Amino acid sequence: MRRSKYKEPLTYENLLIISAGAEGKAITRHEGLVVFVSGAVPGDVVDVRVTKKKSKYAEAIMTRIVTPSPDRIPAFCKHFGTCGGCKWQDLTYTKQLQYKQQQVIDNLERLGGLELPEVTPIMASPSLKYYRNKLEYSFCNSRWFTTEEVGHEGEIEDKNALGFHIPRRFDRVLDLSECFLQPEPSDSIRNFFRDHGRKNELTFYDQRAHVGFLRTLLIRTTTIGETMVLLAVGHEDIDARERLLSEFLMAFPQLTSILWTVNTKKNDTIFDLDVHVFHGRDHIVEELADGPGGKPLRFRIGPKTFFQTNPVQTVSMYKLVRDLAGLTGKENVYDLYCGAGSITLYVAGAAKHVAGVELVPESIADAHLNAEFNGITNVSFTVGDMKKIFDIAFVSKHGKPDVVITDPPRAGMDEPVVRQLLELAPPVIIYVSCNPATQARDLALMNDSYLIDFVQPIDMFPHTYHVENVVRLVRRTTKE
Questions:
Q1: What is the set of active-site residues?
Q2: DSSP states of 148-212 as a string?
Q3: How many CB atoms neighbour CB 469 within 10 A?
Q4: pLDDT tens per residue, range 402-444
Q5: Is the link from the previous residue into 426 a cis peptide, with omega within 30 of 0?
Q6: Is the pTM of this model over 0.90?
Q7: H runs (alpha helix) in 202-360
Q8: Taking the C-alpha atoms of 447, 450, 454 and 456 in order, what is their torsion angle to the nearest 10 degrees?
Q9: β-pair type (428-433, 468-475)
């Protein structure tokens, strides 16, 4: 059999990066071809190696910085470039905000074909480091080797890791010694579990064979100093588990909640697993300032609870939503995709009644507890499929909505839900989105009936290309 002739990799040289594109990739052009480049920032002049070439575009990896951008800065994390998170650490924060703002405008205008008012300047995050309240780490017995390790002579003996998965490599985990996303004791907790596992020769999980004792580690923190740790093991070993958690408690006696579960499935989700308490409570408590009557709202957060991961910025976003709703105390409000009821409870003090709707039963259970926890009674919560829930009986029970707040997942609202909203025809809709592309799609479906009169991008995740966006829609009059 004749071997195919080796092809030299296709390279382009001295390309000026002109902008930032989707998923944080930089944009340049070569002989009329749009090129998406990984690893570069706008303003760089770079050499690249092409990894994919189509008729209208190419994808490439930066191989050399010929001239650095004036907006390029040193990354602060030693794992930058290998870890898949915080991809914009090497770009000034001012420029990060600029490109996120433009991402929102481009999605709404170009993808949605929407006419916008003047877009309000993006709301910057108060904290650029240690802003997350939740991180999930994976144990792995076949870690990702750094370039320095690969070039080192001799066999690498320690192949265990505790950290984040390498992008597009489910079977490889980068071993983290530091992370600037979550405040202490997060780093110390992660390093304790990895060191204990190595010292006591516990097996780290094999992502391909689905065997191994240490599997995943969840750490949740709150702004009032409470911390939850959930260890998931791949199989039960009572002696090893008790020894590990006992030593962990001795090292961290201040923790609010230490939990464990056994996960023998082929995926890491815990929503269908029994979670057991080793120490403390089965939940932690978070406070969000400026709730109803100016008092802080308190939320019970369990291991399976969905809660916004940047709590300080969340307060600013919820206050904005409440202000945009223009509530006077007489309105019926629907809160769609309400989760554990955080927005529901936040606006309740200014409304007559707020009806939260959510598909996930566990989230609705949390919402009921949180309402009781805060002594709020003018709310109700319903479990149901959003495509089917707004029947005559529901509207009769809760009243026709004066305001609808919707905060769907990244996939946006299903088209039948949008159609339901159009049937309900509330005077005001507040659409909170973590994905401006799907938000633009949904808003386009409502464009004939609703006018966009306010757009506010919000940076919830500094050093990433992700951006939150809040839009207010008002019902068009027949004269329009």
A1: 434
A2: HHHHSSS------EEEEEETTEEEEEEEPS--SSS-TTHHHHHHHHHHHHHHTTPPBPBTTTTB-
A3: 25
A4: 999 999 999 999 999 999 899 999 999 999 999 999 999 999 9
A5: no
A6: yes
A7: 238-251, 311-325, 342-348
A8: -50
A9: antiparallel
